[in-house]
Amino acid sequence: TAISGIPNSSWGSHARLHYSKIGPWNADGSRMALKNWVEPTLVILDGRTFAPLNLPRFSPNDMRWHPNDPDVVFYTLGNTVRRRNVVNGEEIVVYTTSYSSITFGNGEGNVTDDGRYVIVTSGPGSWPDDVQDIRVLDLTNGNTEVVPFDGWIVDTCMLSATGSYIVTIAGPNSSETNLVRCHSRANKTLLWSVANNTVSHIDVTIYDGTEYVIGTGLNPTFYPNTVAYRLSDGVWTAWTSTGYASHTSARNTKNRALGVFTSTYPNPPVDRPHASQGLRVRPGVLDVVVPATGWQGDINDYWAQPHMAPSPMGDYVTWAKKVGSEVHAWV
Asked: What is the 3-state secondary structure (H, E, C) of 145-169?
């Protein structure tokens, strides 16, 4: 199907938000980015009418909107990090790694609230799944800080919203790869960690003036809670006692008082409360914002998972839904 208003373009079988932690809306909510399965692989829409916009094309490997400038994105291409104005197409290379590829936190890192810093991971191949280098990158001047990671297998790496903490999901070997660890950004020392397979699908945020990493409890102590760890000392609290959350989106809304947005697992095989819904979670409060996300079938079909994410003001959410053999974006 041709994309209305964009010459020589078509929608692929899948067109959806990229991931729950990758905010699809820009800083003021005026534009929205979708991942498309054919060229153009990135389609930018009007953020309110959802009409496609005929803007200069580019094909990012990994992309984040600037948190304050609605015209600017940061994206990776090959072994470079670039800053681009999506309106006029002007861009500069901010940083080049000596490895063959680079991403933002292995695909899950976000830019700090001031728009200055992001964590980057580099390695071989077209996507650095075998992470060989981690750095905090200053997006204003290209300077970097090396982040030691002890040769661990790194799944996820992110900076806290203020840039004060480094949070990773990693492990020392292939049988232990899901340990959440928090390091001080200032001196790179380990502040706290949690045992393997305790919590997953994490994101970072500020709530009521305190920085947290929030995710889905995995072991019997926590499951099915949404669990928040205070970044300063690792003290945890369960924000919910039900919900069976999947992927978490905590940082993509500027109105952090709204809490954390998450989509929940479907039934069967387990009779789960709030199955296939979109939830907004705050301490002790769970609101249903999407009564039915339509998540069904093989729960391991990654691109058919909802990955719900909010707009900057929290007045819209988007999620992915499989329809027949296609996956569509819903708002």
From this structure: EECCCCCCEEEEEEECCCCCEEEEE
In this structure, are residues 207 and 256 in contact, taking their beta carbons and an 8 Å threshold? yes
- CA 17, CA 22: separation in Å to the nearest integer? 8
220 CB-side CA count, 13 A:
0
| Joined tokens for residue 20 | 């729950």
Whether 26 contacts 70, CB under 8 Å: yes
Structure tokens at 111: 């830019």
Helices and strands: H and E segment counts in the chain = 0, 26
CB 164, CB 154: distance < 8 Å: no
In Å, how far are 10, 97, 235 from 39, measured between CA atoms?
7, 27, 46
Give how far the C-alpha of residue 29 lies from the chain's centroid of Cα atoms, to the nearest Å: 17
Contacts by residues 45-48 (CB-CB < 8 Å, ≥ 24 positions apart): 47/311
Q: Which residue has the tokens 């990994």?
A: 62
Q: How far apart are CA 290 and CA 293, in angstroms?
A: 6
Task: Write the pLDDT tens digit of every residue in 52-102.
Answer: 999 999 999 999 999 999 999 999 999 999 999 999 999 999 999 999 999
Q: Tell me, what DSSP letter sits at residue 257? A: G
Tokens of 299: 């729960």
This model's pTM is above 0.90: yes
